[in-house]
Amino acid sequence: MEKKVVFSGVQPSGSLTIGNYIGAIKNWVSLQDEYECYYCIVDLHSITVPQEPKNLRKNTLELLAVYLACGLDPEKCTLFIQSHVSAHAELSWVLSTMSYMGQLSRMTQYKEKSQRVGENVNAGLFTYPVLMAADILLYQADLVPVGEDQKQHLELARDLAERFNNRYSPTFKVPEPLIKKEGARIMSLQNPQKKMSKSDDNENGYILILDKPEDIRRKVKRAVTDSIGVVRYSDEQPGIKNLIEIYSAFSKDSIEDIEKRYEGIGYGKFKEDLAEVVIEGLRPIQEKFDSYMKNKDYLESVYKQGAEKARYISNKTLRKVYRKIGFIVN
Ligand code: TYM
């Protein structure tokens, strides 16, 4: 039986938070043995916000090193850079002619980002989810492992696949989101009503994958909790609930075990332990990251090999699409 296909990606727009790790990359690693996985560095997406060219180059390479350091194995999955595969931009154009302005303008991420940018909202920010749909549909992905915030974009990808299939004939697999029950929405340490994000103005709100131990200790110590004083996984205690999810993700202990362990013990000790659990969880990733970054030739060989495979697979879909639309395919 053919393996099911998995596709996902992260933007190379700066350092990654533990939200990106817990919500996405950590789950990708566990899928690579069983599925045919494509993990992309979505640089085309990242330029919807102005990027300094020098930084974009650096962030792209660093993100590949993070992928590898987290345990993605290029022998098992395809790791590549989006701009190396021109089919993404090409299919995105086709799909944009089938996307409704109304649906795109209802995208939460677009509404939030355009508010932040102010008056001059670029068209790329608006059509961003169409490019994301193209990413996924090109590989005939069955499953897309993402955090909760991408669910709406996934709906669009499904709608576009169905619309195309209905208008022409079955062409695209209709993908399913793979969103874990726990860890799909890691919240800001400073405001547990808000998603943890690297674009947060307050750096105490997020922990970066590459943060130093002393920074992690400080940020966890300052994390907002409540006055209830019980380590319990409950919606009434969103701050503590979030910290328990982080603890569980890094320690692999169940939520119930964590609650039991801290029965009758205050937040101070819980936070101290949590900081160490995160530091120890990130340590091997940080060490491997440093060694991959020292080996640029290897990184180059990984993304080149990934692009070759991705080009081959995505072109098969794109040619099919072009033929069905009525383009003369040469
Ligand atoms: P991006 O780069 O913003 O985030 C990458 C992944 O991290 C997840 N994530 C979180 N999960 C839990 N808690 C958080 N606080 C948190 N913050 C981020 C995101 O849900 C995502 O899975 N549009 C996408 C990138 C993309 C993509 C794709 C993803 C482009 N094409 C195709 C899947 C398939 C994005 O901006 O992710």
Keywords:
three-stranded parallel beta sheet, two-stranded parallel sheet, 2 domains, Rossmann fold, 7% strand, 330 residues, 5 strands, 13 helices, Tyrosyl-Transfer RNA Synthetase, mainly alpha, binds tryptophanyl-5'AMP
What this model shows, in words?
The chain has 13 helices and five strands. The chain is globular and about 70 Å long. The chain starts with a strand and ends in a 5-residue tail after the last helix. A three-stranded parallel beta sheet has the order 1-2-3. A two-stranded parallel sheet has the order 4-5. Helix 1 (18-31) links the parallel strand 1 (5-10) and strand 2. It folds into two domains: 5-184 and 296-325, Rossmann fold; 203-290, Tyrosyl-Transfer RNA Synthetase (Orthogonal Bundle). By secondary structure, it is mostly helical. The longest helix has 30 residues, at 296-325. The relative contact order is 0.14. It binds tryptophanyl-5'AMP. Tryptophanyl-5'AMP is lined by residues 7-11, 19-20, 22-24, 42, 45, 132, 135-136, 144, 146-147, 149-150, 153, 184-186, 195-196.
Task: Give a count of the beta strands, DSSP E runs of length 2 or more.
Answer: 5
Q: Which ions and ligands are bound to the chains?
A: tryptophanyl-5'AMP
Rg of Cα set: 21 Å
H/E element string?
EHEHHEHHHHEHEHHHHH
Major sheet attributes: 3 strands, parallel
| N-C termini distance | 32 Å
Count of helical segments?
A: 13
The helix fraction, in percent, is: 40-55%
CATH homologous group name of the largest domain: HUPs
User: How many structural domains does the protein architecture include?
Assistant: 2
- Say what the CATH topology of the largest domain is: Rossmann fold
Mean pLDDT: 96
CATH class annotation of the largest domain: Alpha Beta
Structural class: mainly alpha
**Per CATH, which architecture of the largest domain?**
3-Layer(aba) Sandwich
Principal-axes geometry comes out as globular
Strand content: 5-15%
